[in-house]
Amino acid sequence: MTAKAIAPIVLGLLMLALWEAGVRLAGIPPYILPGPILVAETLVKDWGTLAPSLLVTLTITLEALAAAVVIGGVLAVLFSLSRWLELSLFPYAVILQVTPIVAIAPLIIVWVNDVDLSLLICAWLVAFFPILSNTILGLRSVDPGLLDLFQLYGAGRWRTLVDLRLPAALPYFLGGLRISGGLALIGAVVAEFVAGTGGNASGLAWRILESSYQLQIPRMFAALVLISATGIAIFLVLSLLNHLLLRRWHESAVTPEG
Amino acid sequence: MRLVGVHGVSKVFANGVKALADISLDVQSGEFLSVLGPSGCGKSTLLRLIAGLAEPTAGTIDWADEGRRGTDLGFVFQEPTLMPWTTALKNVGLPLKLRGVARGEREARAAQALDQVGLKGFERAFPRELSGGMKMRVSLARALVVEPRLLLMDEPFAALDEITRHKLNDDLLELWRRTGVTVVFVTHSVFESVFLSQRIVVMAARPGRVSTELAIAEPYPRRAGFRTSAEYAAQCREASQHLAKAMVTA
Ligand SMILES: Nc1ncnc2c1ncn2[C@@H]1O[C@H](COP(=O)(O)OP(=O)(O)OP(=O)(O)O)[C@@H](O)[C@H]1O
Ligand SMILES: [Mg+2]
Fold it and tell me: What distance in Å separates the CA atoms of residue A10 and residue A132, rounded to the nearest whole number?
């Protein structure tokens, strides 16, 4: 357990040291590639502007993820209840999923007057599909013997959904959620980039754009570090949630003995 | 007294497979009946029809007391078929929950059923924390918790090792004697069917049909000693011959 946590940290520190040494020894100027120490210094120095931006991006990401959970989850349940609904709607979900977000983000920004809302919609569009498709898969992956049992004792569709299909779908849903968490962040950042100067000029992506115009490359890296850290944090939180909910019973979360 | 009557039942699946052809048999109240037959002869299909989980293509199945059909049923599947996300107690209480029995009563009865199958103290265990034999016991407790008149068992112990199977066979007979439940026990093991039952229905395959019926007169209680007795060996030999004949004519 500890070795599992230490290994990537050691590797990361090693890479950072190599990076710092490389930048210093080769004399690479900071506007081409700043060393990690300079990036860290910038992060601290510019925290006053970076922190509010982080908050903006994080808020959009989490709102989009919440919307993806609610809408993806509810659609999955509705699809599992009605074959017709699924047949008619699922293809459109796929179309939304395969259309590149950068291609439709400008349209959404034009159509939706509110910038924050359009960013939210973009991030949601990227995030909701894994939750939808995974949850549908989970709702269907029910032990047929248990379905027989529920039928035998006269359980209706609702009872079967609540007591059988939903718990059976939980591991699949959580798997989709972990993918969607990362995607919501990517969606939020991409949408901000597309919105560019037309946006509300406040998220982390905007900080990156702004820094690149001003050739403030260390600040650009600092913003990038924050985006990555946010992604990692989201992943860790969702993994923890996954572990807490499944550790008693699902193979994926059970810690092996000995 | 007859509990369930199967009259000229046939089952043809949507894909054209003729699983059962003109099966007739009576299940007597309180008896221990085994259905013995080769793999694929339609034993599971027959149980599902009796349980009302599928409809016969032709023929009828009637119950002595039509109004109470199905409500007096326990079903033990070939696999334990437990909900992995919840405890043994909740698993056993499921049939009661689906019937709307209040929580307090449900848990008391489930705990009692677990006790009955020798799993006192494992109420809070999750299925993955139990051995194969214990999972099967939980499954049996779940079938018994509704105090069924008819217990349908589909090769419940086929996947277990011999020691565990013998122990469960002994315990099952004890439960049968104590509760007076009627048992229809599907198996492909000659030894198991002879040890357990009063009557064996031998089935032949393709299409599934009743080949012969034989009675095992040996009185109960049948203990471990019965397994090594000469009468047991003779009965097994006879049943094996019937099974072999059923497989030849198939
Ligand atoms: N849902 C189904 N659809 C189509 N064919 C089926 C279905 N269920 C069973 N069958 C077919 O019906 C026949 C009897 O199946 P069944 O499961 O009742 O056999 P069985 O005697 O229980 O076999 P085993 O001892 O291997 O469990 C088989 O040929 C099987 O392929
Ligand atoms: Mg079978």
Answer: 37
